[in-house]
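I wish you would study the pair of lines that follows with an eye to the fold:

===
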Amino acid sequence: MKLLWTEEALERLKEIEIYISQDNPAGAVEFVDKLISLAKTITDNPEKGRIVPELSIEFIRELLYKNYRIAYLIKKKSIDVLTVFEGHQLLKKEEIIRRINPPK
């Protein structure tokens, strides 16, 4: 199964790296690499992650790493990483639905 990253997810990774690099540049790269590596593990088992509690949608799941959440969408032939964000935040259903079905 193919793993695809949305623009938002890639942007969030950059933001995370910039934030952490203020205190620890080498640690920032290592942390983001770990997030990416963890996301790659879902290609073999897409249902590995838990269903996002605040959404309760079977095909939108997440992996947890330290205090971050990697939210992804399971499709027939691919997995889309929707976003990466701090664990204390809630994933807003309206924003996710808009990303899955963008306005035309």
